[in-house]
Design brief:
Layout lengths: L2 H15 L6 H27 L6 H20 L5 H16 L8 H37 L1
């Protein structure tokens, strides 16, 4: 036996006889890994059972929407500021679809906005007339 083989056998003997030291961080990583695996198995089993109940595309679409939106929101909470941006984007999309956050239709609110616009236009005309009369009085006083 050469020196290299003696050194290799000695290092193997030390490795085999040394106690296995698992740090608390390694334990935490293993436990979180195991929990993640079990959660994934549970979700997979549930998804396989669900396919028998959701045969039509409409129900699959509803289930997908109900699952994906909260999942995306919770996933984006990991990024600083992304949750606020998603909330703002959802509010904008809902507003353009015709739905306000409390469920009222925009058409109902459009009447109120149109009334306010007409009131503002009338007030604007009145103020313009006042400005013109003041300009006329200032102009006539200069002459």
């Amino acid at each position: 036996m050469g020196i290299k083989e003696v050194l290799n056998s000695a290092t193997d003997a030390v490795k085999n006889n040394s106690p296995v030291l698992i740090t608390p961080i390694a334990k935490a990583c293993w436990s979180s890994y195991n929990m993640g695996c079990s959660a994934l198995k549970s979700i997979n089993n549930g998804a396989q059972k669900l396919s028998g109940y959701a045969n039509d595309p409409e129900s699959r679409e509803k289930i997908g929407r109900c699952v994906s939106h909260p999942l995306a929101r919770e996933g984006l909470k990991l990024i600083p500021g992304a949750s606020y941006a998603v909330g703002l984007a959802e509010a904008t999309v809902n507003h353009h679809r015709g739905v306000v956050s409390n469920g009222k239709k925009v058409e109902f609110l459009a009447e109120q906005v149109n009334r306010e616009i007409k009131e503002m236009q009338a007030e604007n005309k009145q103020l313009k007339a006042e400005v013109e009369s003041i300009k006329g009085s200032v102009h006539s006083s200069k002459l």
